Amino acid sequence: MIPVCRLEDLPAGDSVRLDITPPVAVFNADGELYAIDDTCSHQDASLSEGWLEGCLIECPLHAASFDLRTGKPACLPARRPVRTHQVYVEDGVIHVLVASDAGATGDGGTGAAEKGSAA
């Protein structure tokens, strides 16, 4: 697990980028925490710099949006999903368990819910 930040340092509606390879973005969507690959599958824009609305993140480059729960694109121009990662909160610190390529389902997710809770 990779420590991200303290829970209080990621308020609702905000995101943080993990500079790992590949980069991962962690979002607080109205109290629910999600982690996805930070690179738009359409072009190489940082999704953590996009606009968050509910469980959708809109890419700042061409307005493709992705569902944070599944990683699937919600509209064009993106056609391929981004990976989702598991998020945990332990002792007030947000952690991400990065999905391995071998464990990815190819539909953008790793299977079960990847969200954590800020509650």
TrEMBL record:
<dbReference type="GO" id="GO:0004497">
    <property type="term" value="F:monooxygenase activity"/>
</dbReference>
<dbReference type="GO" id="GO:0016705">
    <property type="term" value="F:oxidoreductase activity, acting on paired donors, with incorporation or reduction of molecular oxygen"/>
</dbReference>
<keyword id="KW-0223">Dioxygenase</keyword>
<keyword id="KW-0560">Oxidoreductase</keyword>
<dbReference type="GO" id="GO:0051213">
    <property type="term" value="F:dioxygenase activity"/>
</dbReference>
<keyword id="KW-0408">Iron</keyword>
<keyword id="KW-0411">Iron-sulfur</keyword>
<feature type="domain" description="Rieske">
    <location>
        <begin position="2"/>
        <end position="96"/>
    </location>
</feature>
<keyword id="KW-0479">Metal-binding</keyword>
<dbReference type="InterPro" id="IPR017941">
    <property type="entry name" value="Rieske_2Fe-2S"/>
</dbReference>
<dbReference type="GO" id="GO:0051537">
    <property type="term" value="F:2 iron, 2 sulfur cluster binding"/>
</dbReference>
<dbReference type="InterPro" id="IPR036922">
    <property type="entry name" value="Rieske_2Fe-2S_sf"/>
</dbReference>
<keyword id="KW-0001">2Fe-2S</keyword>
<dbReference type="Pfam" id="PF00355">
    <property type="entry name" value="Rieske"/>
</dbReference>
<dbReference type="GO" id="GO:0046872">
    <property type="term" value="F:metal ion binding"/>
</dbReference>
<protein>
    <submittedName>
        <fullName>Bifunctional 3-phenylpropionate/cinnamic acid dioxygenase ferredoxin subunit</fullName>
    </submittedName>
</protein>
